[in-house]
């Protein structure tokens, strides 16, 4: 029976910390785009984020971070069986960090041109 090793799965401590820093910065940028541009301008995004935003528009009392987290649970359940451990663990970290970043209040970014707003707020 093979034993599980965090070091062999995730790599060196320095590499893990660097990857978590990059995930955190990317999550903060995407959350700023969503909270600072998309939601105030009533725009949608693609994927699970867009579905979470659409549900939030229909039921404004539901927080977008909770919706995003809940909508991702079935996807992660399937991913558990089909992707490698490292990718899965970093994805879980990204889910938690991005959901947390969506909770943080963001500054409203002033933009008035709808095309510019769509380009600025494009989230992958």
Please tell me about this protein's structure.
The chain has 124 residues and is mostly helical. Helices cover 71% and strands 0% of the residues. It has one domain (11-120). The chain has helices at residues 6-10, 13-38, 47-58, 64-82, 85-103, 114-120. The mean pLDDT is 84.
Question: What's this entry about, in short?
Answer:
This protein has one domain (11-120). The chain is built from six helices and no strands.
- The low-confidence parts are none
**Mean pLDDT level:** 84
Strand content: under 5%
Q: Radius of gyration from the CA trace?
A: 17 Å
- Derived from helix and strand composition plus strand pairing, the structural class reads mainly alpha
Pick out its properties:
single chain, 124 residues, mainly alpha, globular, 71% helix
Topology, please?
Elements: H1 6-10, H2 13-38, H3 47-58, H4 64-82, H5 85-103, H6 114-120
